[in-house]
Amino acid sequence: xxxxxxxxxxxxxxxxxxxxxxxxxxxxxxxxxxxxxxxxxxxxxxxxxxxxxxxxxxxxxxxxxxxxxxxxxxxxxxxxxxxxxxxxxxxxxxxxxxxxxxxxxxxxxxxxxxxxxxxxxx
Length: 122
What we know:
Elements: E1 4-8, E2 14-18, E3 35-36, E4 40-44, E5 53-59, E6 71-76, E7 81-85, E8 93-96, E9 101-108, E10 116-121
Parallel strand pairs: 5-10
Antiparallel strand pairs: 1-5, 2-4, 2-7, 3-4, 6-9, 7-8, 9-10
């Protein structure tokens, strides 16, 4: 598997990781940062007018981040796919995963407005 490096500027200051596109997006009016459900992870991003958010996306065996992840959980991936998308962009990236439930770890350089994010699966 190959690590993908993306530069994105989501209009709504977040993007999502999910195993399919038609999932309810976890939201909370009083909480910021990474929000998750069993089917979707909402990941904050830098305000688009402040610049691009740089995302490293790949298997855990190839992502070498130091320290504890900001998020570590299990995501349903019923089609054995992991998709990154947002409200306007149907697909920033897609990866094939090994199982119908996948461990996801996320590291960010800021809890609410990260410029650099690493997303590892497996």
